[in-house]
Amino acid sequence: MNIYIDGKSITNDQLTQWKRKRVKKVFNILGYKSAEINDPDSMIDKLTNLKMESSYQEMYNKLESKLKLSKTVMRMGAFLSGSRRKFSQTEIHLDGITAEEAIKGIDTLMLNSSDKNNRVNLSACPDHYALRPLGENELEVIETTGNSPLPVQFFIVFNDETGLQTPRDDAYAYQSAGVARLKDGTVIGGVRHQMKDTKTGIKVKLSVEFPAMSPTILIKSHQMHLACEFSYWLQWIKGQKNNNGRASLD
Q: Is residue 250 assigned to a domain?
């Protein structure tokens, strides 16, 4: 797997250092003490176990005051930004999997509710608190975007591209695209993640749209968030294919 941000290759060490910082932050947000972190992946496993022990409502209650504040900030940012957007973009190349397998696996993780999928989604990035399918094409997300001091709650409606500004690239046969809204319906951005086959695997273009008033440092940090979660998801999907002879579509 190769990961690129702004055309530059991201090393495993860079991603590990980013994970280490975020794991410590999330332990603190949830009120847990974290041991000295030598292996952030091991600490993410421990963090995931703690998250899995909490119901959705218990997790929401822990974060409620922070979510209310971030909702106010995001609503104001969206209002002041109007239709203007900033873009957080990351590119991933991975061998040994097809674009169709990858997109089906991602869609399954996003929209099919199961304990297994929940564990995978919480493990994909330390900043994930809840990824909860709602209906046929909607996903509730509670996460910290970039290096924001606060987690945020939003809802992505997939296959709704209203207002998306990231252009559709016809060279990419598959995509996962949707608009992101707050609970009151305020549009705060969206996603357009595109995938295509290469000779040996896939090429993935990831793009998240934020209100233009969002700090650039948040946008830059969210590029690493994308690298973290999608590298995990894609490797997991590839692993399921290798174990079962095809990508798992539970």
A: no
